[in-house]
Amino acid sequence: xxxxxxxxxxxxxxxxxxxxxxxxxxxxxxxxxxxxxxxxxxxxxxxxxxxxxxxxxxxxxxxxxxxxxxxxxxxxxxxxxxxxxxxxxxxxxxxxxxxxxxxxxxxxxxxxxxxxxxxxxxxxxxxxxxxxxxxxxxxxxxxxxxxxxxxxxx
Length: 154
Fold this sequence. Notes:
This protein is mostly beta strands. It is 3% helix and 45% strand. It contains 1 helix and 13 strands. The strands form 4 sheets. Strands 1, 4, 5, 6, 9, 10 and 13 form a 7-stranded antiparallel beta sheet that branches. Strands 2-3 form a two-stranded antiparallel ribbon.
């Protein structure tokens, strides 16, 4: 298990802001504020359990405080101090399960990966325009996701 306390601050008009953010391609007044990746509290727990018949189960649980975002006016300028509002806390439980097979001296792991097993609401977007009907509403969460897993060992 691991806990990290961190702080990330930076210039508001960095390279990515100038060239990558085409959803709001306006330069805002410069300054220093929380970085978009700032999550001050993060807890991570993981483990591996080996079962008979070469079956392995590896759960991972992650929780971190929400990333910051800025409220905007309808002209996409800051409405107040930048990056002072936060997304809800992120929480995910992921599980990888696989079985190892050996054929003619070669091994392969075949299994499944389940992401966000608890179906926790982890939004990736927010409506930031202050005064709009949906201001501050969070959206675009991904539910549980099941994927196949194959690892060939040579």
